[in-house]
Amino acid sequence: MSRNKYLLVASVVLSATIYSCKKETQDLVGSQDEQAAKIIKTNSSGSLNRVDLSNQGVTLNFEGTATVAGAKATEAVATNFPYQLVYRGKVNPQVGVNNNLLSALEVSAYGNYYAIGYQTPGKAYGGGVDVIQLQPSGAPQVVGAVSTKDADVTCVTSGGGRLYVGMDLETFENFKYPAPAVVGVIKINSNNLQDAQVVGLEGYSTTALKYNENNGKLYTTSATNGGVSIISFNGDKASRTAFQPYGSARSLTFSNNDLIATNGYSYAKFDVNTAAETDYKHWNIKSDDAGIGAVASTTNGNLLFGNNFGLIYVNKADNSVLNQIEIGGWINSISIVDGKIYVSNGNSLIVAEIVNNKIKVLAQTHFASKFGGEFKVISSKVVGSKVFVACAERGTYVFDLEKI
User: Fold this and answer.
1) Residue 323 in 3-state DSSP?
2) What are phi and psi of 94, to 5 degrees?
3) Residue 3 has what pLDDT?
4) Mean pLDDT of 211-225
5) Average pLDDT of the residues in 303-321
6) Could you tell me the residue range of the domain that residue 309 belongs to?
7) What's the Cα-to-Cα distance from 260 to each of 243, 277, 304, rounded to whole Å?
8) Any idea what the CATH number is for the domain that residue 61 is in?
9) What pLDDT score does 47 carry?
10) Distance between CA 362 and CA 347 in Å, rounded?
11) pLDDT for res 28
12) In this structure, what is the dihedral angle of CA atoms 21, 293, 101, 115, given to the nearest 10 degrees?
């Protein structure tokens, strides 16, 4: 049976779609818990020593742009954002079943812990999750891990005392799931990960996860032949309770109390209990690929959307474009913290804010200028004053954001 495998690889100007094929295999008999135990392996006791502290303490300033004598000039330290990134260390990637480096994709925070998701680059499968904790010095320490040798991990999040792992399962027929897109649900007890479950979705590849603390439900999107799914909990038992088809669904956000899902060319609102779709609208921005794009919501409920052409600020009420700017490169993640917008676009971290309904770029920093080599920032995550940058096979870089 042939099928698509979507590996979203951020680079300066592209996203990659990769295809693979597999043969039919016989069904395996077993309970859902037994199947989950075969897909998800946890390790909370090993040494897990993959932290690189070389160059710890190195700083990266955010550069700005100023107008001098009518011409634009680069500021070594941005006047509008006088901060720097202080490097605290790097978590090297997990090693796959074929002794290959996995690709760091995304970071999620829960309490004093952080989870890093991994997948295998290219056509092969295999992924995992690291659980890290920051020491008093700010240096990362790996304290637990998950291995998924039959599945790529595509996204991670947490909430309600659980870690959620979006996956693209290679041998989904073996496990009697309806499609390759599945979600792992793992109970969290400090750094201990236990009682894994796997919930089947529709479509190829889980693309986004969002937990709602208000109602205790998990919301997911999945790619081709997929859509928006709702996972509910009866005690510790997880199950999919609603599904709405939505082509090439890519990202999720909560805009006030509204659940918004998007793909590369449209967005819509989905009922938080039934997943019923309403208010379908097109983004007023061109796109080369229906399966790309990052979305976030501002405190007033308006939407920020970015793809490989730019970043737009949209009035959710009437779909009008309030402002649009070109960032350069493919926008793969957007974090909003204390009114500041942090956008990663392949090799940089850009800081912006909304002023009078206009996107104002304050500063940016280039990782290659300090660490050298080719940088592929798959995503960045800003949590308070902590900054995590997932950089494929280079691993995950950890910084403190400090005022100069």
Assistant:
1) strand
2) -65, 160
3) 36
4) 94
5) 89
6) 2-403
7) 14, 10, 12
8) 2.130.10.10
9) 53
10) 17
11) 33
12) -120
For 244-282, what is each residue's pLDDT tens digit? 999 889 999 999 889 999 988 889 999 999 999 999 998
- The radius of gyration computed from the CA coordinates of the chain, to the nearest angstrom, equals 20
Query: Which residue, among 92, 96, 203, has the nearest Cα to 151 in the 3D structure?
Result: 96
Identify whether the C-beta of residue 91 lies closer than 8 Å to the C-beta of residue 130: yes
On the question of pLDDT at 293 being above 90, the answer is no
Strands (E), 227-347: 227-234, 237-245, 251-255, 258-262, 266-270, 277-282, 294-297, 303-306, 311-314, 321-325, 333-337, 340-344
Residue 100 has pLDDT above 70, yes or no: yes
Yes or no: say if 4 and 16 are a contact pair by the CB < 8 Å rule: no
> Which of 351, 397, 327, 345 minimizes the C-alpha distance to 61?
351
**pLDDT tens column, 314-326:** 999 898 999 999 8
| 3 state DSSP class of 362 | strand
The rounded distance, in Å, linking the Cα atoms of 146 and 36 is 12
**Residue 325 structure tokens:** 């700017």
- Cα-based angle 152, 155, 159 (whole degrees, multiple of 5): 130
If residue 33 lies in a helix (H) or strand (E), which one and from where to where?
Answer: helix 32-39
What is the tens place of the pLDDT at every residue in 107-116? 999 888 999 9
Asked whether the beta carbons of 39 and 169 are under 8 A apart, the reply is yes
**330 phi, psi to nearest 5 deg:** -85, 125
Model confidence at 24: pLDDT above 50? no
User: DSSP per residue over 136-201, as a string?
Assistant: TTS-EEEEEEEEETTEEEEEEEEETTEEEEEEEETTGGGGT-SSSEEEEEEEEETTEEEEEEEEE-
Separation of first and last alpha carbons in the chain: 57
- The per-residue DSSP string of 35-74 comes to HHHHH-EEESSS----EE-TTTT-EEEPBEEEEETTEEEE
Q: What mean pLDDT comes out for the span 54-74?
A: 71
CA separation for the pair 170, 3 (Å, rounded): 10
Query: Quick check: 290 and 282 in contact, CB under 8 A?
Result: no
Domain count, the chain: 1
